[in-house]
């Protein structure tokens, strides 16, 4: 059993064994939960478990991380966003700063916990309802976060926590939010534009200039040099002799850029030994790091990223009891 | 009026050899021998030779087709994007198809870049290279040459269009003769209907390119392979280092090739239709540029041609001599001659000019009939007969005046180095090093 301490007349449950055992404690025994465990991956699993709970008293329970553990958590990059899965950090158990939040949540829970029982919800509706309850009591919008760990580069950690695989999380949370938007429950505001792999939707892409002939991307760019006096133009490699630039046509030494010569452009040479093609405008091929699909830039999927907030209709819908 | 005709005919009757030699010596001694006799005889001999050696031309054609080398068509240009579609289409229709098309965009400021890259992507242009900063025509041509892979390089203007067998025809002389360093194509004016200036140039091209160049080539003193349509073996271009800073770079490179003892051939059957300036103003500008290059290249840069040393060749000397004599010396003589008449016997002018005009008109008609005799599309040429009376004025006065101005400019003011046709950066360097 985890320890309960009394701080500012709030019952604070220090989560330790529950995290270790992955069991949810009884929400009625305490007002607030504080994570008292050092392993970020275990904490993450536990926090997701809270979010996925169907019990309003559980998924709305104010949960804090301790500032004192933050360094340890951040050491593991994959857990950068665990504070987004709960109510953030608390320092030295300074509970008085959080009293307002605790009271608001408590009031909401008392009002709705008992009356929700007879409301039958499908999977998607349940997720939307629990998300609404959370964002409504926390007075926040559903804001996407930039993340290296998500497939597309953006994540809605709290919504995605309801899904199990990374691909599903990205795809279904988007479908869910879009559905709610088209039903006019959510309002949205444009944040960003993404270009994603047309095969897997991945946003981790490698843009390569390729040889138009052999498609190799082992290219070298060489500046062109125009020698004014004799009108010779060629790649810089034509001119290089020891450390100097010597014109291959008239053998004179090129000293002053802008006076003797200039560089009116550049060319690429394909370093594939069986090709050696020279050209000026290489096509670009995009390679997906995740699924290794090659595609040209115009084949990429363009996606908009939005921040969502609840509309008037959304408020009425989610607050109604029947 | 009647009085004028009476004196005019009277003058014809009274004319004797002495008066003629006194006032019209250059007609008798230079123009008639040159334009009627030398051209007429050479033209006939050249045509005869061509007929007699028909079998050898056929063999040369067969040798070309057996070898079937890759040929680079090199098109340097500035803001020429709008002509590229026609160019690409005209190359697709060629009877000779082993072609590599290289288009060089010399710092165009319009949409040439997009058009060119588009054609390159579709494979219609093999290589489209762009210089972001304008460097002048010579540098653009050299850049294309740097990337050319063909055995022969055909230099072409973007706005010219080729007859369907033009590339095949311009290549045959390389297989017909030994040691050919360049072959010039035959230029016809395409936009002769656009204005009077264009029509006069149509006649001029017929005479001075179509006829004269056959003659010059026959006499082995042909000296300008037109930039609009000329073919070179790539090895020869590499040896002379490509083009030097112009204007007049096409004449310059021909001289450079002559100097290393190659033959220059004019191929009358390789026909290219070219676009000429439509307004008198633009035509004047073009001719000033061309004429200045005569002084710049023939008298200044390549003055060693005149010097009898171990590199001296008689044919090179003669090609320059012909050029300088008829282009430059006679022009100045003409100026003095005009002043002489004006000062000594101004009233004589009134009767002398009509008389002289009559002689030149007859000369023009005979020259015109030469053109008619050798050209393919006789109907088209014949339609222009009503413009013949203007031809003596066009060539005798307009062209002379323009040329004379250009020579004076270049002699005293080095104006070709100030021409906006080239970027200042290259002109100033070219002047500094006497190129």
Quaternary form: heterodimer
How much is the average pLDDT of chain A?
87
Query: In CATH terms, what is the fold-level topology of the largest domain in chain B?
Result: Spore Coat Polysaccharide Biosynthesis Protein SpsA, Chain A
Strand content of chain A: 25-35%
- Helix and strand string of chain B, N-terminal first? HHHEHEHEHEEHEHEHHEHHHHHH
Model description:
- The complex is a heterodimer of chains A (322) and B (435).
- The radius of gyration of chain A is 30 Å and the shape is elongated.
- In chain A, strand 10 and strand 11 form a beta hairpin.
- The longest helix of chain A is centred in the middle third of the chain and has 17 residues.
- Chain A is an alpha+beta fold.
- In chain A, the strands form 6 sheets. In chain A, strands 1-2-3-4-5 form a 5-stranded mixed sheet. In chain A, strands 10, 11, 14, 15 and 16 form a 5-stranded antiparallel sheet that branches. In chain A, strands 9-17-18 form a 3-stranded antiparallel sheet, with no helix packed on it.
- Chain A is built from 10 helices and 19 strands.
- Chain A folds into 3 domains: 117 residues; 94 residues, Arc Repressor Mutant, subunit A (Orthogonal Bundle), CATH 1.10.10; 72 residues, no CATH class.
- With 435 residues, chain B is α/β, with parallel strands linked by helices.
- Chain B has 2 domains: 156 residues, no CATH class; 212 residues, Spore Coat Polysaccharide Biosynthesis Protein SpsA, Chain A, CATH 3.90.550.10.
- Helix content of chain B is 61%, strand content 12%.
- Chain B is built from 16 helices and 8 strands.
- In chain B, strands 3-2-1-4-7-6-8-5 form an 8-stranded mixed sheet, sandwiched between helices.
- In chain B, helix 5 links the parallel strand 2 and strand 3.
- In chain B, helix 3 packs across helix 7.
- The radius of gyration of chain B is 23 Å and the shape is globular.
- In chain B, 41% of the residues are buried.
- The model of chain B has no long low-confidence stretch (mean pLDDT 87).
- Classes of the chains: A alpha+beta (322), B alpha/beta (435).
- Chains A and B meet through strand 11 and strand 16 of A and helix 5, strand 3, helix 6 and helix 16 of B.
